[in-house]
Amino acid sequence: FQKVDGVKHINPFLHFFSQNLCFILPQFLYQFFCGFSQQPLYDAAYLTMYNICFTSLPILAYSLLEQHINIDTLTSDPRLYMKISGNAMLQLGPFLYWTFLAAFEGTVFFFGTYFLFQTTSLDENGKVYGNWTFGTIVFTVLVFTVTLKLALDTRFWTWINHFVIWGSLAFYVFFSFFWGGIIWPFLKQQRMYFVFAQMLSSVSIWLAIILLIFISLSPEMLLIVLKSVRRRSARNPNLELPMLLSYKHIDSGYR
């Protein structure tokens, strides 16, 4: 079933490209606000584990298990295979679409947190937060957004998908508490000590994280709603050809 394989193989590539663009864009933007000092926005542990531990398993499970369109629908309508010929999903249109979304998300991550930090104090005790708290907020919004974006794109849910998606988010939170909750003897600088726990003690930061995640995912959610409305208004939604950019508006056949 070439149609299934095409989505399973190409969509993970597009997600991987997107999540790395919105990962590095805030670091690029940060250089304009740190005197071009090459100061990193993210802690070294986060830089190392982003693709290895925090975001890898959801994409792997998606590439192995996803069935974007019901197999019965595929076998009953051969026209569905037409749109994937000639690497249609890797042409300029889809590339610009995913690039724009990733650039939008990365900009929201950085400048949303930047404007939040314009307030002199984010804590009720009057204490101010520093560079590592700033970077941790950006990174937290990043990890949750790219993972939830993949969840929105998943049509065929299994217990494995649930385990790796929600487990990856839980592991990130656990690791952040663990990494910042111990004074590590092999580190010369304890720059992340208690940063994550202190960050989550602020109601303002909780609200900011939720708001930034929602804003970042709003184009994706709006697109899903529009395609759902279009699918319902179609006379025969099961026979619609997939759109070039996202291939999401075909009735999947899963109820």
Describe the structure concisely.
The chain has nine helices and no strands. With 255 residues, it is mainly alpha-helical.
What key phrases describe this protein's structure?
single chain; 255 residues; mainly alpha; 9 helices; 64% helix; 0% strand
Describe the structure.
The chain is mainly alpha-helical and 255 residues long. The protein contains nine helices and no strands. It starts with a helix and ends in a 22-residue tail after the last helix.
For the report, how would you describe the main beta sheet?
none
Shape: elongated
Radius of gyration: 20 Å
Count of all domains: 1
| Fraction of residues in β-strands | under 5%
Mean pLDDT: 81
Structural class: mainly alpha
Low-confidence stretches: 236-255
Helical amount among residues, as a percent range?
55-70%
What's the total number of strands? 0
Distance between the termini: 21 Å
Q: How many helices in DSSP terms?
A: 9
Query: What string gives the helices and strands in order?
Result: HHHHHHHHH
